[in-house]
Q: What sequence folds into this?
């Protein structure tokens, strides 16, 4: 699915139905399920509240994860990875979900796929640090396309 351009109809544009190309950033099928719950397709209050709530959660959780890296707290990193994995999956943010799942596994001193491993604490922290850097970039991409979908220029 990576690299495959996906588009979703954007009926929130006044007087027209456009498409927004999410690329491989957002799984269109999952996101459309959230959009179906909007009562007003112009305002999109329900889906907007979920998406913008996710933005707030991510910012707070990334700060907590940075602190946990400094404190070398693998268990808390695993827990926060698990938390963001679920939130991002709900919105169809597959790359973020996959990265957070890896953080969850490394925080539990498992390998990337979740199988038991002999990875040292230091190696798990090193890998989480690298993944966290990547997932922050993935988040910026997702935030950009979702804000554009909701016609938010910030």
A:
């Amino acid at each position: 699915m990576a690299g495959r351009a996906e588009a979703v109809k954007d009926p929130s544009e006044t007087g027209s139905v456009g498409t927004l190309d999410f690329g491989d950033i957002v799984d269109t099928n999952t996101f459309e399920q959230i959009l179906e719950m909007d009562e007003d397709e112009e305002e999109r209050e329900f889906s907007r509240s979920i998406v913008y709530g996710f933005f707030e959660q991510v910012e707070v959780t990334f700060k907590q994860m940075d602190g946990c890296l400094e404190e070398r707290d693998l268990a808390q990193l695993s827990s926060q990875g698990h938390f963001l994995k679920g939130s991002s999956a709900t919105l169809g943010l597959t790359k973020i979900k996959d990265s957070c799942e890896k953080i969850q596994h490394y925080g539990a001193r498992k390998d990337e796929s979740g199988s038991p491993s002999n990875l040292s604490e230091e190696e798990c922290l090193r890998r989480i640090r690298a993944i966290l850097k990547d997932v922050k970039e993935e988040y910026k991409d997702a935030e950009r396309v979702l804000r554009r979908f909701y016609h938010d220029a910030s």
About this structure: The first helix runs from residue 28 to 35. The chain is about 60% helix and 5% strand. The radius of gyration is 17 Å.
